[in-house]
Amino acid sequence: MATDSAPASVECAWRDQVDRVAPTVLVLGGFLMSPPMYRAFRGRLLRRGAARVVVARVWTPDWLLAGMFGLERVLDRAEQGLRISRETSRSTRASAGAPILVIGHSAGGLIARLLTAEQPVQGRRYADAPSIGAIVTLGTPHAVAADSQFGRRSGGSAVRFADRVVPGARYAPVVGYLSVASRAIAGRSDGSGRERTADRLYRNILPGPAGETIEGDGLVPLRSALLAGSRHIVLDDVDHGPGSGRPWYGADRGLDGWWDEAVSTWRDALRTRIDLRGSA
């Protein structure tokens, strides 16, 4: 893994070496999470070939304030992370200035989509799609029922807004999209304690028929986490987030299931940009 510094002249050098260039990765954390919780995840990404990894400085209080005042602070911190990632890619020989591979965990995947919106989000226009090579979402609730408990909260409103302004894989194929979901934990109203808890959590996001078994990662139901138009990967044995004592999307077992496809999705989008530029 090469992470050596390079002069600013490498800014667009990635166009001549798409098969060899390594991604600079921006991690957008989930609701109520904070950067230190992704320290081990960052190390695993570096060991698997990421040139550099930036974790956006979105902290737990930022998420709490978002619940009362909206996502502006979270989005601004996420965009600051994207700006740092762009500068890092331009100054890192292994990335050669390539657009960023953004990994959004849980609500972080929604934030990644909103950063690409050309319409103003809470009064500010981000329009960052040109800087992003691919968006990979890990257990992100892309589909939320308006009449669900989550749907009536600010998070549900943000999902519906994203569906209006950046529906599905809005900027494909010049931005790659990969949705990673899990069916590790079945939600059953008459199951074990863990299954009953999962059933309640899933139905808070996307209710189904009474008595139906719902698949998911322990927090987000499977059918909510698969963004329309994106590539899909469904894992069988990982939980939603760190801290449960079991493997999650960012553990080695999870990464075994999606990291290679994430890099492939990112490189395919880079090739598309080259092809479109050549035919212009």
Compact description:
With 280 residues, the protein is α/β, with parallel strands linked by helices. Helices cover 36% and strands 14% of the residues.
Textual characterization of the structure:
- The protein has one domain: Rossmann fold (3-Layer(aba) Sandwich), CATH 3.40.50.
- The protein has 7 helices and 8 strands.
- The chain has helices at 39-47, 60-69, 72-90, 107-115, 154-165, 193-205, 252-279; strands at 24-28, 52-55, 100-105, 132-138, 176-182, 185-187, 214-216, 231-235.
- Strands 2-1-3-4-5-8 form a 6-stranded parallel beta sheet, with helices on both faces. A two-stranded antiparallel ribbon has the order 6-7.
- Strand 1, helix 1 and strand 2 form a beta-alpha-beta unit.
- Helix 3 (72-90) crosses helix 4 and helix 4 packs parallel to helix 5.
- The two termini are 34 Å apart.
CATH class: Alpha Beta
Q: What is the assigned CATH homologous superfamily?
A: Alpha/Beta hydrolase fold, catalytic domain
Strand fraction band? 5-15%
Measured distance between first and last alpha carbons = 34 Å
Most strands sheet: 6 strands, parallel
Indicate the low-confidence ranges by residue numbers: none
Number of strands: 8
Lateral strand order in the biggest sheet: 2-1-3-4-5-8
Please count the helical segments.
7
Number of domains: 1
